[in-house]
Amino acid sequence: MNRYIALFTCLLPLCLTAGQEQSQNTVTDERPNFIFFITDDQLKEMMNFLPEGEGQNLTPMTDRLVKQGATVMDRMYVTSPVCTPSRFACLTGTYPSRSKADGFLNKAKQNGGQTIVEWNTYINKQNKDTLPWLLKRSGYKTGFVGKNHVIEAPRIQKPKWEDDPTDPKVVQLLRKNAEILKQAIQNAGFDYAASLYDNNPSHNGIKALLAHNQDWITKGGLDFIEQFHSEPFFLWFATTLPHGPTDDRRSWEADPRITAEGLLDEPLQVQPSRESLAERVKLAGVRGWQKENLLWLDDALFALVRKLDEVGVLDNTVIVYFNDHGQRSKGTVYEGGVHGEAFFWKKGGFPAGPRSDVMVSNVDFAPTILDMAGVEFDPVLFDGVSCYPALMGKPAQARKSLYFELGYVRGVRKDGWKYIALRYPENIAGMSIQNRQKRLDTFNASQRRRGKPIFTEDPNTPFSHIQAIPGGGDAENKSMGKYPAFYDADQLYYLPDDPGEQTNLATAQPEKLAEMKAALREHLATLSGTFGELTAK
Fold first, then answer.
1. Among residues 387, 420, 438, which one ends one of the domains?
2. 42-86 confidence digits (pLDDT tens)
3. Are residues 438 and 343 located together in one domain of the fold?
4. What is the pLDDT of residues 334-349, one digit of tens each?
5. pTM, 2 dp
6. Both 378 and 413 in a single domain?
7. Residues 342 and 478 in one domain
8. CA distance 311 to 320
9. CA distances (Å), 432 to each of 66, 439, 459, 467, in order?
């Protein structure tokens, strides 16, 4: 086995209990460091710290953090349950519909002024009061590794699907794209950017490079810590796992030289070997889909913790573990899409204890981290509020409601009630059969090229909540048949009695419906764009 395996058993407890004798490299600045460890499309069953996944996975580092110093946020929500707007909310502390990206704004114009929140809410040069910028201006070093899909890099030119990644011209293009992406991320407030995927591995352009490389992402994170550990730092560590491709041959069993930038000269040796994954999973007695990938992901976390300990800053580092959105109803604002998973960890733990039932949104991450860092900021900059007081066992600022936005739906949750409004703009609702067919043909051609399933050939099939594609897109199609009132314009649910949102009470509870509509109007009134009669003056 890889030499790291032999070290794992002794170093795992050491990393979390060391501190009596600090490394000589320990920083004197007492402000905490931060690692924001964001996973991609992780299911609840993949997390041992949740009831749905308890004991089903081999994730020793994650489990140890949870048991020694973490506060799990049991009522964690995201405002938009697909990756780009979710990441936007985390890094800006604002709702994704506040994006200034040209593509987002232009789409609103095409739809009569109605904003369409999807994979278009990018951070660009105009965003100067984001979490990385505010930390940077306060003396923090900021780093970004792994999956992007949130910072705008419009000059990237994708190679062709069948290109040879060893062709010198293709290599040159990949390197040029990497530099463009790196510069875009630095323009967004990050001092450091490395090991970058502009999108998911299957959308980066070349079929031959359609594979994950967690080792490569980890290398970028370790290099950042090594370079900047003598100063307070913030590292955005964005994995591509466990998002697809999920088959073994394009994940942990893939050629270890594959990266988004082409082929490495040699495989990396920065975390326990890939060869050991299957054996360790087997020895642990866990079986099932993606078990090796989850251990591979956990090994990355172990490598980071080990590095923090080596350079003497583990005791002064806060780790935020966050899955980018709910997976059971991805692409919708039902609970299965917006209920997320997260924990905060620091050595010795937080006064709040191992679990917190304070309701939080991912727009709260930015003000919370700034609060922890002692950075003064204007609360008006954010839609979120700091949950740091709650972690410290103090009264937290009470939320009147939670707000959700995605595609053609908006939602609000308040006092156990959930209201969802579905409004297609006129040009979408009245789309001609010819245009519906054109959109479907384009989508199906892309699905076939990438070996993805075809959901429908019928252009009359209804759209989803997020995309005007008959039958819905790849991200949300599986969510579309789970809810009886999916296409009702107004949906009202009482979650304590109906957590699965199966019974629409909009007709039976007109007074409550009116109250919830008013709550949604309050949120919409602060945002740009229209949304049917709910934004009418």
1. 387
2. 999 999 999 999 999 999 999 999 999 999 999 999 999 999 999
3. no
4. 999 999 999 999 999 9
5. 0.95
6. no
7. no
8. 20
9. 53, 11, 10, 16
Q: What is the pLDDT of residue 66?
A: 98
Query: Is 219 within 8 Å of 302 (Cβ atoms)?
Result: no
Beta carbons of 37 and 319 less than 8 angstroms apart? yes
Residue 178 dihedral angles phi and psi, to the nearest 5°:
-60, -40
Collapsed DSSP state (helix, strand, coil) of residue 320: strand
SS3 for 118-143 is CCCCCECCCCCCCHHHHHHHCCCEEE
The percent helix, strand, coil of the chain (3-state, each to 5) is 35, 15, 45
Nearest to 201 by CA among 274, 119, 259: 259
Question: Given CA atoms 270, 274, 278, 283 in this order, what sign does their dihedral have?
Answer: negative
User: Which run of H or E residues covers position 38?
Assistant: strand 33-40
Instruction: Report the half-sphere exposure of 122 (CA within 13 A, side-chain side).
Output: 23
Together in a domain, 263 and 342: yes
Determine whether 156 is exposed, middle or buried from the number of CB atoms within 10 Å of its CB (0-12, 13-18, 19+): middle
Given a cut of 50, the residues of the chain with pLDDT beneath it are 1-4, 6-7, 10, 18-27
Count CB-CB contacts under 10 A for residue 487. Answer: 13
Which CATH number covers residue 164? 3.40.720.10
Q: Report angle CA 435, 331, 129 to the nearest 5 degrees.
A: 105
Which residues, 6 or more positions from 187, have their beta carbon under 8 angstroms from its beta carbon? 125
Let me know whether 381 and 446 are in one domain. no
Q: Are residues 143 and 213 in the same domain?
A: yes
**Are 368 and 412 in the same domain?**
no
Q: Which residues pair with 238 in a beta bridge?
A: 38, 146
Q: Read off the amino acid at residue 287.
A: R
319 in Cβ contact with 65 (< 8 Å): yes
- Do 41 and 479 contact (CB within 8 A), yes or no? no
C-alpha distance from residue 401 to each of 68, 322, 479 (Å): 32, 21, 24
Q: Where are the beta strands (DSSP E) in 233-384?
A: 233-242, 258-259, 262-263, 317-323, 341-345, 355-356, 360-361
User: Which residues, other chains included, contact 10 with Cβ-Cβ below 8 Å and sequence gap of 6+?
Assistant: none
R_g of the chain computed on alpha carbons: 23
Whole-angstrom distance, CA of residue 422 vs CA of residue 352: 38
- What is the C-alpha to C-alpha distance for residues 237 and 235, in angstroms, rounded to an integer? 6
Domain that holds residue 236: 3-19+40-97+126-387
Q: Is position 423 within any domain?
A: yes
